[in-house]
Amino acid sequence: MARAVLAVMCLSICILAGCLWTKHEIEVKPMHVIVDVNVKIQQELQEKFKKTDEVSKEISDKEAEEALSKYLESQK
C-alpha cells in the first residue's frame, strides 16, 4: 500500500512538474495576401460589353463577309 501511495505521489509530482516547465512561444509573422482581381474585372467587362456582344451575334457570317469585302475595296 505504501508503494502505491509513493508511486501516485511520484507520478503526481512528475505531471505537475511537466505543467510548470512548459514554454509557449508565439511568433507573429507578417502575412502576405494576394487578391486576385481578375474575376472582378472579367465580370465588369462582361457586363460592359454585353450589349455589343448581343449586336455582334445578330450579324450573320454572310453579312460579315460582305462588310469585310466592302471595307477592303474601300482601302484600295
Features:
76 residues; mainly alpha
Beta strand %: under 5%
- The helix/strand class is mainly alpha
Which regions are unreliable across 5 or more consecutive residues at pLDDT < 50? none
Report the helical percentage.
over 70%
User: Oligomeric status of the shown chains?
Assistant: single chain
Anisotropy-based shape: rod-shaped
User: In sequence order, what are the helices and strands, one letter per element?
Assistant: HHHH
Largest sheet: none
Our count of helices gives 4
Instruction: Count every beta strand, where a strand is a DSSP E run of 2 or more residues.
Output: 0
Rg from Cα: 39 Å
What would the average pLDDT be, to the nearest integer?
79
Give the N-terminus to C-terminus distance in angstroms.
114 Å
Written overview of the protein:
The protein is mainly α. 71% of the residues lie in helices and 0% in strands. It has a domain at 35-76. The mean pLDDT is 79. The chain has helices at residues 2-20, 38-48, 50-58, 61-75. The longest helix has 19 residues, at 2-20.
Which SSEs are present, and which pair or pack?
Elements: H1 2-20, H2 38-48, H3 50-58, H4 61-75
Concise synopsis of the structure shown:
The chain is an all-alpha fold and 76 residues long. It is built from 4 helices and no strands.
